[in-house]
């Protein structure tokens, strides 16, 4: 990869940046238009990330942040941990963005001119509030999101540097979720959930989960980053799946903000909040994908996987749509459950489970885990059953003992179903699947939810 930007690249990035700066300058008049500003900031974030990935690639290699592309004929080393570049640009963008949604509100809620002596009645502020302007208290949530993301980036870089063992690194996101959980506790504290209609006679309309709600939120934060990290190993898949999820959440947010939705809708603010966190994420991720797509010129590193997952977790928790979020992560959930036997070492788990590159055909095939010791009877039977259901492929010896199995990832399963294929076609197939699942998930969320809940909150 050349460390310098080509002429056309440099000119395109420059003109995009200038256009975005122009738009930002315009939002300084009048009401500030935070949503427009957020889009402009995302454009800027894209340009910066794109250029920085190029400029910093060699420095990362020198620092030892590099990896071999295992699915290529020539296994050259390329820079790894480029997600750190994304994350840093993202964090700076979201911090510099703060005045747009919050500044006017600080002034509106006081007697103006920055004086905080006379604070206006909340009622007055609420009703006189401009569309898309946040109450000041939301700033606490916003800052806690930034804190959590910052923590996950530090821990993620640590993992990329020291290659932490799997059983320890699953818990990394739990530490990073502490800031949002604490601020949620101090600031918001709602731990009730809406009860599905059939259960209402027993539990009432709202059920207070109490501290279990915090456990639930911590579990969401552990699940999202790890589930993206284990659906990985072929060029582009980590970033592209995150982009599909982000775009689907943006689509869902837009449903609440469209001119056809009655305003003010109770969920408007939450979904706007979600957009402010996601748009710059899309900006930095597109820049990374352009370098990570097949044939990859950089790797994203665990930093990116954790960071992306945490953006979703934070977004879903603070935007109050964590159940919808899970619907959009169904392929990741399936992959997680499917991987569980290997993750918990019920079945042996090699260091890498990515597909096997056949250098003769240039195609990817399922990777195999061999069982040196015979498996326990129930486990062997379970694998045989899954084999019959075409949910994996095993080999048995003449005694009928299972001697090997395909690795338990959805990527390998795809190859079991559709046969060997080139790396980019495999990624495209999985992404199409992710998109289809997400759209069905959203449909279920907004249509079928009426069966179990009395109303769709749209
Ligand atoms: C996770 C998976 C592991 C998978 C790995 C691939 C589990 C428990 N762990 O481990 O099975 O093999 O991700 O990312 O499911 N690489 C490529 N091509 C790519 C991406 C990565 O060859 O497109 C290789 C490179 O050598 C790179 C390395 O994978 O250096 C990165 O692996 P790492 O992210 O450290 O693996 P884990 O997240 O621990
Ligand atoms: Mg990884």
UniProtKB/TrEMBL annotation:
* A molecular function (GO) term: UDP-N-acetylglucosamine-dolichyl-phosphate N-acetylglucosaminephosphotransferase activity
Kindly indicate whether the keyword Transmembrane belongs to this entry. yes
Signal peptide extent: none
- Cofactor(s) the protein requires to work: Mg(2+)
Instruction: Give the membrane topology.
Output: Multi-pass membrane protein
Which top-rank group of organisms is this from? Eukaryota
Q: Which InterPro entries match?
A: Glycosyl_transferase_4, GPT
Location relative to the cell? Endoplasmic reticulum membrane
Name the pathway it acts in. Protein modification; protein glycosylation
Membership in a protein family: Belongs to the glycosyltransferase 4 family.
Q: What is this protein called?
A: UDP-N-acetylglucosamine--dolichyl-phosphate N-acetylglucosaminephosphotransferase
Q: Which organism encodes this protein? A: Glonium stellatum
């Amino acid at each position: 990869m050349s460390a310098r930007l080509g002429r056309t690249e440099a000119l395109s990035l420059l003109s995009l940046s200038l256009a975005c700066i122009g738009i930002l300058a315009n939002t300084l008049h009048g009401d500030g238009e935070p949503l427009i500003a957020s889009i402009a900031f995302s454009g800027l974030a894209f340009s910066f990330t794109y250029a920085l990935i190029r400029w910093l690639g060699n420095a990362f290699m020198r620092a030892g942040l590099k990896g071999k592309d295992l699915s290529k004929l020539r296994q050259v080393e390329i820079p790894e941990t480029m997600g750190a570049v994304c994350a840093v640009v993202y964090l700076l963008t979201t911090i510099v963005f703060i005045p747009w949604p919050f500044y006017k509100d600080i002034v509106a809620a006081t007697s103006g001119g920055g004086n905080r002596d006379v604070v206006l009645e909340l009622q007055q502020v609420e009703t006189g509030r401009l569309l898309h302007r946040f109450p000041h208290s939301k700033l606490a949530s916003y800052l806690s999101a930034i804190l959590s993301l910052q923590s996950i980036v530090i821990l993620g870089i640590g993992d990329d540097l020291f290659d932490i063992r799997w059983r320890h690194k699953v818990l990394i996101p739990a530490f990073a979720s502490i800031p949002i959980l604490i601020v949620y506790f101090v600031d918001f504290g709602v731990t009730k959930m809406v009860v599905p209609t059939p259960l209402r006679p027993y539990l009432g309309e709202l059920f207070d989960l109490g501290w279990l709600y915090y456990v639930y939120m911590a579990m969401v934060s552990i699940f999202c980053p790890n589930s993206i990290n284990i659906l990985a190993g072929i060029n582009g898949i980590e970033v592209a799946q995150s982009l599909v999820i982000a775009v689907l959440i943006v689509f869902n947010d837009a449903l609440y903000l469209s001119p056809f939705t009655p305003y003010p809708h109770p969920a408007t603010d939450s979904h706007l909040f979600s957009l402010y966190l996601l748009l710059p994420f899309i900006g930095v991720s597109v820049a990374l994908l352009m370098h990570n797509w097949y044939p990859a010129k950089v790797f994203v590193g665990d930093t990116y996987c954790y960071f992306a997952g945490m953006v979703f977790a934070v977004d879903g928790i603070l935007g109050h749509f964590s159940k919808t979020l899970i619907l959009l992560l169904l392929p990741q959930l399936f992959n997680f459950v499917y991987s569980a036997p290997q993750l918990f070492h019920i079945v042996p788990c090699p260091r890498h489970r990515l597909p096997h590159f056949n250098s003769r055909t240039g195609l990817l095939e399922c990777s195999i885990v061999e069982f040196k010791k015979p498996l326990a009877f129930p486990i062997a039977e379970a694998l045989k059953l899954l084999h019959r259901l075409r949910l994996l492929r095993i080999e048995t010896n003449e005694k009928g003992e299972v001697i090997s199995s395909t690795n338990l990832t959805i990527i390998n399963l795809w190859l079991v179903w559709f046969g060997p294929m080139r790396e980019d076609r495999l990624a495209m197939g999985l992404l199409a699947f992710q998109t289809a699942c997400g759209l069905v998930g959203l449909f279920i969320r907004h249509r079928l939810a009426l069966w179990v809940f009395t109303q769709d909150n749209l």
